[in-house]
# Entry
Amino acid sequence: MKILNKKNTIFLCSICNINSGTCNEDCKFCSQSVRYKADIERFKQKPIEEIQAEAVNARDAGALGFCLVTADKGLNDKTLEFVCNVAKAVKEVAPELRLIACNGTATLEQLLTLKENGIKAYNHNLETSESFYPQICTTHPWSERYETCQNVNKAGMVLITGGIFGLGESKEDRISMIESLNSLNPSSVPINFYHHNEALELQPNPLSVDEALELVRLTREMIPKAQRIMVAGGRELMFGDRQNEIFTNGANSIVIGNYLTTAGREMNKDLEMLQSLNLEVATKVN
Ligand code: SF4
# Structure
């Protein structure tokens, strides 16, 4: 089995949408955009107690990473303050969790503020190749995404950046995106597979399971220094009963629990899967 950290341990991460479905951008794969009127839950700020309960639940299920996600193009003063307050509140109840923020475009100054408030890592995805990007988003440029990732590195935070496959991009686009990701030297690379929502104009994800597994393997090989290749959104839908094969193709991290706007499977099913494969849940961040 090809697992990078040699100990066959799998890093579990849980994501928490602390603000949902309020974004004005037009990313064509995203049901959180207000433009597409997808039938999802929308709220400005999740109550802190609810977030704390989710954090405790995730920790108890074995998650090491807890990602605070907001739905907007980027940070503003109000969001920054909210994320910092949430970070402090989560640390009070689950200090073992590594806090990750995923709040869109961020300046160096904003990232340093997050860092001072206990956020260790920042996730901002390139989503797709630079050349294909204008076909999936017209309201902000790919370069802004790349710059935010550079800011994360400048801030001395752990960079998490990846993308989404199955948007209608070509094979060359996929390789180009992976090369761009590698150029940013990320610690963790989340790979998502497009999960179609009927409110979105994009066609359903055309990838076969074999093609998707090949993309996991390619990402692992083309970003050799990344500590983790994470299979994130779309895992259950994309791989079905072949989910175990992501690990033999180089993935060593998964998201457990629900995604931002779609349900994941029960956490204990994932834990059972790992156990049946003789894979241990990572108990510390390497
Ligand atoms: S900027 Fe983020 S939240 Fe907004 S539509 Fe794009 S992917 Fe969705």
